[in-house]
């Protein structure tokens, strides 16, 4: 089967559209409580249509539905997607939520090849049916090629790429919303309690969809789960002239330093729960009191006072006072990851600072080696999801499963009207709006405490400034776990996360039924 589908002539266009053939299978797993759960797997393509009702894309998705519950319409249904943009849903599918998962070492580091796949006793299938969705251009999802125009420039190639119309913020959200609306209709699940869950940019999607689904697509939500979300992109783009990105990453750096026994601002060190809580509290307090004043004032602050602060920072994050002084208190995550263990020739992973690799080029100014986390897990998730889809469920296609597409990421655009000088995009306002649209919906935000890419303290500080009334605030909860961006790769964190999610779902459904 080719990478794209083509409508080449008027006669061909008149032929009824037919999606690629999917596959299905039935299985059974043992859950955390020792019970057995029978379930049905289905891997299918669902078309997306334009305003003329012409198919323009095929969205690939994998569903897992309990075969034990006779009342399917009353069972929760969760739509799950990852981020990027450009990432397929395989990370949550095969790492935490689905009925089968890939194996990591206990500390969350990659296990040796070949990939190992086991039944996932912590699968969310215990309390919700699941639909894993791959946005267009990721996984097996593709645009359908229309009548392409000739041309050889880069602009022509982009214009003729059938995936590219979906590489935009709004069109991406609309296509996912259209998919969910059609899925609910085709499977008669409009009465089901509906949840959405997303990771990283997928968490950004969730915050946006909380508003869009309810306002434009008549899909009321019982709950929304944001995993390691990027809520405000201005906070991910640190510069010499702002403050908040540096504030948000500081507690994470302190926790990572403590994991390597490099944190000296308190007597705590290591990764035990008590040490984590002690370091977290003192680092957060410094981050929201002393650090903003230091960075805002710059050289308005006398040099001796600045140097005193640099010395304090050194005790928190384990870097030399000279290095902190050189950077005037603004320590980039890449600098931190390269310098903390430099004397050991180790570089930390940005997605989990407690995982490190050997610095292949220690004599070079810039780090040119692989990231200790993201670069090493693609082989695991790529092999895992291909095995699950092709061998276990039985999908037959020659298409490449695009686990993480850098083409999608590089091509992403803001496809709504705004001035060129407008600030970076954000989703928190949409989350606030959606929460007021639906006073019964519950929201959970969770991060890994060692994630240097989307730091947990950013979400904590954003929520503290959302101006929610007490009732709305009571419906939004935050809980973070030992680990990085994909904290669920750690066995203990995944187990705790699943147990917390089961309680979250029960509370959300109880809020729904209490009004009847």
Provide the descriptors you would attach to this structure in a database record.
single chain; 516 residues; alpha/beta; Rossmann fold; 2 domains; eleven-stranded mixed beta sheet; two-stranded antiparallel ribbon; 16% strand
User: What ranges have pLDDT less than 50 throughout 5 or more consecutive residues?
Assistant: 7-13
How large, in whole angstroms, is the Cα Rg?
Answer: 24 Å
* Average residue-wise pLDDT: 91
**CATH homologous superfamily label of the largest domain:** Alpha/Beta hydrolase fold, catalytic domain
Termini separation: 50 Å
User: How helical, in percent, are the residues?
Assistant: 25-40%
Strand content is 15-25%
CATH architecture of the largest domain: 3-Layer(aba) Sandwich
Name the CATH class of the largest domain.
Answer: Alpha Beta
Overall number of strands: 15
Largest sheet: 11 strands, mixed
CATH topology of the largest domain: Rossmann fold
How many domains is the backbone divided into?
2
- Give me the number of helical elements: 17
Principal-axis shape: globular
Class per helix and strand makeup: alpha/beta
């Amino acid at each position: 089967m080719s990478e794209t589908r083509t409508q080449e002539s008027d006669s061909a266009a008149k032929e009824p559209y037919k999606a690629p053939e999917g596959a299905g299978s039935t299985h059974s797993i043992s859950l955390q409580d020792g019970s057995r759960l029978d379930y049905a797997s289905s891997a299918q393509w669902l078309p997306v249509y334009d305003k003329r009702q012409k198919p323009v894309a095929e969205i690939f998705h994998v569903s897992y539905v309990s075969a034990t519950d006779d009342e399917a319409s009353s069972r929760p249904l969760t739509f799950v997607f990852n981020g990027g943009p450009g990432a397929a849903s395989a990370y949550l599918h095969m790492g935490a939520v689905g009925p089968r998962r890939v194996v990591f070492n206990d500390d969350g580091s990659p296990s040796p090849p070949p990939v190992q796949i086991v039944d996932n006793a912590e699968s969310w299938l215990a309390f919700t049916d699941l639909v894993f969705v791959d946005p267009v251009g990721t996984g097996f999802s593709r645009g359908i090629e229309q009548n392409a125009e000739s041309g050889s420039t880069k602009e022509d190639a982009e214009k003729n790429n059938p995936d590219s119309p979906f590489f935009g913020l709004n069109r991406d959200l609309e296509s996912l919303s259209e998919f969910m609306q059609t899925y609910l209709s085709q499977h008669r699940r409009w009465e089901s309690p509906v949840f959405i869950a997303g990771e990283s940019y997928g968490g950004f999607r969730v915050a946006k969809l909380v508003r869009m689904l309810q306002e434009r697509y008549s899909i009321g939500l019982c709950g929304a789960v944001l995993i390691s979300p990027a809520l405000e992109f201005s906070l991910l783009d640190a510069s010499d002239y702002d403050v908040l990105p540096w504030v948000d990453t500081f507690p994470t750096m302190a926790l990572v330093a403590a994991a390597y026994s490099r944190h000296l601002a308190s007597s705590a060190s290591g990764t035990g729960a008590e040490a984590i809580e002690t370091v977290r509290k003192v680092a957060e307090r410094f981050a929201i009191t002393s650090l903003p004043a230091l960075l805002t004032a710059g050289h308005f602050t006398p040099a001796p006072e600045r140097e005193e602060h640099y010395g304090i920072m050194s005790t928190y994050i384990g870097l030399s006072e000279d290095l902190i002084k050189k950077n005037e208190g603004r320590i980039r995550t890449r600098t931190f990851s390269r310098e903390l263990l430099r004397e050991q020739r180790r570089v930390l992973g940005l997605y989990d600072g407690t995982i490190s690799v050997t610095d292949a080029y220690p004599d070079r100014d810039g780090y040119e080696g692989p990231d200790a986390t993201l670069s090493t897990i693609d082989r695991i998730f790529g092999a895992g999801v291909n095995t699950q889809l092709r061998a276990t469920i039985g999908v037959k296609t020659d298409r490449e499963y695009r686990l993480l597409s850098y083409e999608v990421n590089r091509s992403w655009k803001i496809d709504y009207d705004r001035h060129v000088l407008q600030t970076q995009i954000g989703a928190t306002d949409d989350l606030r709006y959606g929460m007021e649209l639906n006073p019964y919906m519950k929201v959970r935000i969770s991060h890994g405490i060692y994630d240097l890419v989307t730091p947990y303290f950013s979400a904590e500080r954003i929520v503290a400034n959302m101006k929610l009334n007490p009732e709305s605030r009571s419906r939004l909860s935050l809980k973070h776990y030992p680990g990085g961006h994909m904290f669920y790769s750690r066995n203990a964190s995944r187990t705790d996360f699943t147990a917390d999610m089961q309680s979250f779902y029960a509370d959300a459904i109880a809020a729904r039924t209490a009004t009847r």
